[in-house]
Specification:
By secondary structure, this protein is of the alpha+beta class. The chain is built from 24 helices and eight strands. Strands 2-4-5-7-6 form a five-stranded mixed β-sheet. It has a three-stranded antiparallel β-sheet with strand order 1-3-8. Helix 20 packs antiparallel against helix 21. The protein is extended and about 115 Å long.
């Protein structure tokens, strides 16, 4: 009996411990992770401290309950939070963690949030095309789940990114956002989508001044009416002021009788919201618009007071917006010129130069920081697996703690065994860490090899380019002709031929090292080359080169045209019968919109079909394989999609082939 009581006393703390753990677990079970997450996300603009607290709490609960989907989503939302705080290192880390975990569990919802975080981060880094691709993937994942709130949000973001790139795609995605928002109960998402669509309407009006502004004005009036019905349901308070500012802009840009009063009323309403919720960007935008209005009214004193108020407001902020400060000083400079107050102009110009330089330095620092973040991201990706392994080990340690408590309650019977397993665990963890380190080193070596392979490919292209420019077949023929002149004692032609040949070789070797050369030098080289071909073919053809008014300061890539002339002579003019004299013409002209130089090469040779058949026969005999046009195509494609070349046959009225035309679109620069 005493032994039973002793055992009961020993086990009593264990039961208390288990009961407390169970109570904590039950309290966590009753905590809604989604609710905490949504509360944190909604407070990101009004209370950043509570916002990150709720997000971190939701993440901690999700980890304890081993809910990997919720962990991935919490990572994504924390990435968005730190992006807003300009802490790009943390934002990139959480975005990478979200993406890695989402790919492991293959959850469409988690993937949607991971792509959303990555896309918005790419947009923050001004990587617009990559941002659009990531957001489209997020849209597709949310569409699988019929998650209309996120569909609306993501489609709006895509539409905003297409605003300056593709009006048709902007309209497509903003329409999809409107349709999705109609199926959700989220007032925040519906308002955000309406603002995106309103921006689209304003953009359409600015592109086409003949359109009526009534559509956009009525749209924003309806948006304001919906806001004023239920302002408490909108958590993103800054969005509440945007319709007033947009409506004021429409009244300002499209004046009519009574629009001035309406313009000022909308700005005053926006200022009330800005002061009520401390929305800085709304406050400064309203001041700027008012100042421009009073400048147009020639009330310069009022405009100057507003601009100075905006400067004072910005300088009092913990984080100064250098761009806005430089714009306010620029407005004051403009005002000083209108008032012919050149002393004040000099003072305002000092402020403008200061903040403009700070803005440039900040932008440069931001670009360098973003580059560092992207570099570190590639290294941190190797550590994400280790982080997830540690999370799993922490969950394992919880059960290990329960076992330890049980062992303490019944005695120290299994102490040695517990010690043994803990030592084994540390050895395994050390082994895993070493394996990870070796993997990272191998990956670094692989990247170096890939860089070397890319350099090798570049050198191969340059070698093939040099070979295409100095055709061995042409060189051997030229040397043979010189020898022939010497044997015939034709000293004059031998000297002329040798002089032209040496000049051509010197020009080719010199131009190969340059990316661009003057057009006049290119034409001089082509003349020299064609005249050598004339001597080689016993002057069996004539040529003309026409420059249609292109300036002398124009430069183009070297030796782009020579392969086409070679093909024209070798495969078009050379096979002509002796009774027909060949003719070759080059015309250089500037494209209509000055986007490229057009070179039109025309000959009266045998045409493309006959030329190709002869060329195939020659290659079958391994006489000569021309790779000049293929290299030229690679070079033009590397310059951009606007450049290239096209070939066409010339036919007379009876449909008989009368020659070939080649049109080459060449990039150029002005020196």
């Amino acid at each position: 009996m005493p032994c039973s009581k002793t055992l009961l006393y020993l086990l009593f703390p264990y039961f208390v411990f288990l009961f407390s753990c169970k109570s904590k677990s039950e309290s966590l079970d009753h905590t809604d992770i989604t609710l905490l997450r949504n509360m944190g996300y909604s407070l990101r603009f009004t209370d950043t401290t509570k916002s990150v607290t709720y997000q971190q709490r939701a993440l901690a609960i999700a980890k304890k309950e081993n809910k990997e989907e919720d962990v991935s989503i919490s990572y994504a939302l924390l990435s968005l939070f730190y992006k807003k705080k300009f802490q790009t290192n943390n934002a990139q880390l959480y975005a990478d963690s979200s993406y890695y975990l989402a790919t492991q569990i293959k959850s469409p919802r988690a993937m949607g949030y991971a792509y959303l975080a990555t896309g918005l981060l790419k947009s923050f880094f001004s990587e617009t095309d990559q941002a659009i691709n990531q957001l489209i993937l997020a849209y597709q994942n949310f569409k699988q789940l019929n998650d209309y709130a996120n569909i609306a949000r993501v489609a709006s973001e895509i539409s905003n990114l297409y605003a300056d790139k593709d009006a048709a795609k902007q309209k497509k995605y903003v329409t999809l956002a409107v349709n999705a928002a109609a199926k959700t109960n989220s007032a925040d998402e519906r308002l955000y989508v309406r603002l995106s669509y309103g921006s689209f309407l304003i953009g359409e009006k600015r592109k086409n001044p003949l359109l009526s502004a009534d559509t956009a004005i009525n749209y924003f009036k309806e948006t304001i009416r919906q806001i004023e019905q239920h302002p408490d349901k909108i958590h993103t308070k800054s969005n509440m002021a945007v319709p007033y500012i947009n409506l004021a802009v429409l009244y300002f840009e499209n004046p009519f009788p009574g629009s001035e009063l309406l313009f000022l009323q909308q700005l005053d309403k926006a200022l009330v919201i800005a002061r009520q919720y401390n929305i800085r960007n709304v406050y400064r935008n309203s001041l700027g618009l008012k100042g421009e209005y009073y400048i147009q009214k020639k009330e310069y004193a009022t405009a100057g007071r507003l601009f100075k108020e905006g400067i004072a407001y910005q300088e009092a902020m913990p984080y100064q917006d250098y761009y806005t400060l430089s714009m306010f000083y620029a407005a004051l400079k403009k005002l000083a010129i209108l008032q012919q107050d050149y002393k004040s102009y000099a003072l305002y110009d000092t402020g403008f130069v200061k903040y403009n330089a700070l803005e440039y330095n900040e932008a440069t620092a931001k670009a360098l920081q973003n580059a560092d973040v992207r570099f570190e991201s590639s290294q941190k990706a190797n550590m994400i697996r280790t982080l997830e392994k540690e999370n799993k080990l922490q969950r394992s340690n919880k059960w290990f703690g329960y076992g330890t408590a049980f062992l303490l309650a019944i005695g120290l019977l299994f102490m040695f065994r517990s010690y043994y397993f803990r030592q084994k665990y540390y050895i395994q963890n050390e082994t895993i860490f070493r394996d990870k380190q070796k993997t990272a080193e191998l990956q670094l070596q692989l990247e170096k090899l890939e860089t070397a392979a890319a350099m090798s490919e570049k050198l191969s292209i340059e070698r093939r380019l040099l070979q295409s420019q100095i055709n061995p077949h042409f060189v051997f023929n030229a040397l043979g002709n010189i020898q022939s002149f010497i044997l015939q004692n034709d000293t004059r032609n031998a000297v002329v031929y040798l002089a032209k040949f040496s000049k051509l070789m010197r020009q080719i070797l010199e131009f190969t090292t340059k990316e661009f050369i003057p057009l006049t030098d290119e034409i001089d080289t082509l003349k020299n080359y064609i005249e050598l071909q004339q001597l080689r073919l016993n002057n069996s053809f004539d040529y003309t080169i026409i420059n249609q008014g292109i300036d002398t300061d124009i430069s183009i890539p070297p030796m782009l045209i020579q392969p086409f002339i070679e093909n024209s002579i070798e495969h078009g003019l050379k096979p002509l019968p002796l009774t027909k004299r060949g003719n070759l013409q080059l015309v250089f002209s500037l494209a209509e919109h000055h986007t490229y130089i057009s070179c039109t090469l025309t000959d009266n040779g045998i045409g493309i079909d006959f030329s190709l058949s002869n060329k195939v026969k020659n290659e079958a005999k391994q006489e000569h394989r021309s790779m000049g046009t293929a290299i030229t195509k690679e070079r033009l494609n590397s310059e951009g999609s606007s450049y290239g070349f096209s070939l066409a046959e010339i036919k007379d009225n009876q449909g008989v082939i009368a020659g070939t035309t080649a049109v080459i679109k060449i990039p150029f620069i002005k020196v």
